[in-house]
Write a structure and sequence with these properties.
By secondary structure, the chain is of the alpha/beta class. It contains six helices and nine strands. It has a nine-stranded mixed sheet with strand order 1-2-3-5-4-6-7-8-9. The two termini are 30 Å apart.
Amino acid sequence: MAGTTGPAGTAETAGTAETVDTGAGVARITWHPAAEARLVLAVGHGAGGGIEARDLRALAAELPAHGVTVALVEQPWRVAGKKVAPAPKTLDTGWRGLWPALARPGLPVIAGGRSAGARVACRTAAELGAAAVLALSFPLYPPGKPEKSRAHELLGAGVPTLVVQGGNDPFGRPAEFPESDAYELVEIPFGDHSFAVPKRADIGQEEAVRRITDAVAAWAGRVGMGAA
């Protein structure tokens, strides 16, 4: 392991990064610690972007005040500067290799991610012992191909799961998700796959992001109570 280590829950500057050797290459975790952490929320990025995504940045800024250390995870392919994500199996290998570092603080870990990162979290949650799964913009199907559903990944997570989905997400609108007690779903009105809302929407961009952080903070609080 290289770089500056930063276990969650310690007195350190927000944004401390560490690199981790995984079976799929070198990944990076950027820690945003809570002063008195009760949980770690580890969130990975999607296949088309990195941890600069608006929802990931907002969670890292807001959740520490709620007792949740946020660990923003960059998969090895992003750290290596590649532009195309590898196969799901390789993404899962990278996530598994990161898990010991995420669990090192000794706190319950919520496995999370946006888009492809949400799929990784769902596929590996039970085997890794995640306390819960946060699925941001879960890609229920490839755009325009609803017959190629990935609902089985979401339904098979095996732990408490929260889906936060834009109302206009072309990868799956909230009404298209199967009814199930396996997860909770929060809709962000008018939001697309990146939670961007059009100017004509009834809510502004700041309000849309606030709804994401409020929903996740409230849900994480319940997860923390259950994990205590």
